[in-house]
Write a structure and sequence with these properties.
Elements: H1 2-17, H2 20-68, H3 71-79, H4 83-94, H5 107-133
Helix pairs in contact: 1-2
Length: 134
């Protein structure tokens, strides 16, 4: 690859210095070198991609093998393979749900706010009806 690059550079310099009769012949040679260099570059790039892909696959498989032989992961899969065991774990960690937690506001505060807004809306609708009747 390096020799092809050097040959192409050398030919470019010769083309610039050559007469018009020699230029056409040198351009043909330069194009041939360029085509060969491009083909070799593509082949090398493809080879590198294949080897990198193979290395990545081997590394992935080795990581999978090492994690499956991990005793902690085996213990986890044995312990939490059924739905019941997972539900028990969740209930133990989080409780049964929102009913277990205390409410941030008391029931009286919640009821008072709703009743006030309902009464205000009723009185506004009565006033609106009276205004329309006049």
């Amino acid at each position: 690859m390096d020799t092809l690059r050097k040959q192409k550079r050398k030919l470019k310099k010769q083309i610039k210095a050559a007469s018009s009769e020699e230029t056409n012949g040198l351009l043909v040679i330069w194009r041939q070198l360029k085509a060969r260099h491009s083909a070799l570059s593509r082949a090398e790039s493809a080879r590198k991609k294949r080897s990198q892909k193979r290395k990545n696959q081997e590394r992935f498989i080795s990581l999978q093998d090492s994690s499956s032989s991990n005793p902690k992961s085996e213990e986890f899969t044995k312990k939490y393979t059924s739905i019941e065991s997972v539900e028990e774990k969740v209930e133990g960690d989080f409780g049964e749900g929102p009913s277990d937690r205390p409410s941030p506001r008391s029931e009286a505060e919640v009821g008072v706010g709703l009743a006030d807004t309902a009464q205000e809306q009723d009185s506004k609708s009565v006033e609106d009806q009276e205004d329309k009747g006049l």
